[in-house]
Design brief:
Shape: globular
Number of strands: 2
Strand content: under 5%
Number of helices: 10
């Protein structure tokens, strides 16, 4: 949820629960993570509304160009231009299938874990956030939907773990490519 950036880790209160850190950081208008994605976009881009909708689509599971275009309601050629900009800025990553040459099977994902979590949960809960209902959001949205959110993160966790084992020389096989499929 918070990623590995030192800047983000410094904003976590390790004496408090994950629940409290999520509520205080994301579901509080004074929370650090509440403004972080918008701050990143405003710093780097114009027309942030279009980028916001694309990021929301990707966080909700639209991973192909066609799926994202349908969610956003714009032609794939125009949507692709916005996605290409976000790829160049390191906001979105294009993940190609392992050993595959067919780029039509590529998937898009948000690189920044904070942005991914934010776009998955915050936009639909803005009114409750403004009303300071962080506990309600956590109980009704986070606890009930965390499995759906985390299932998209499991392949990344597996790839990271394999890379860690390889780096520590704990895997004795030669891994040429560690990617999806």
């Amino acid at each position: 949820i918070f990623g590995t950036k030192k800047e983000y880790r410094n904003k976590i209160d390790y004496t408090k629960s994950l629940r409290t850190n999520i509520i205080n950081g994301f579901f509080n208008i004074n929370g650090y993570f509440y403004f972080e994605p918008k701050k990143i976009l405003k710093k780097e881009l114009r027309e942030t509304q279009v980028y916001n909708v694309i990021l929301e689509a990707v966080s909700k599971g639209a991973s192909t160009l066609n799926d994202i275009s349908e969610y956003v309601g714009m032609p794939t050629s125009i949507c692709n231009k916005y996605i290409t900009v976000m790829i160049s800025l390191g906001i979105i990553e294009k993940v190609k299938p392992a050993f595959g040459k067919d780029t039509r099977k590529s998937r898009y994902k948000i690189c920044n874990p904070v942005m991914n979590f934010w776009y998955y949960f915050v936009p639909e809960n803005i009114s409750d956030i403004v009303l300071n209902n962080g506990d309600k959001i956590f109980e009704e949205k986070i606890e009930k939907n965390m499995d759906s959110y985390l299932k998209t993160k499991f392949p990344d966790l597996c790839r990271d773990y394999i890379n860690k084992l390889k780096k520590e020389d704990k895997i004795k096989i030669d891994i040429k490519e560690n990617n999806i499929w």
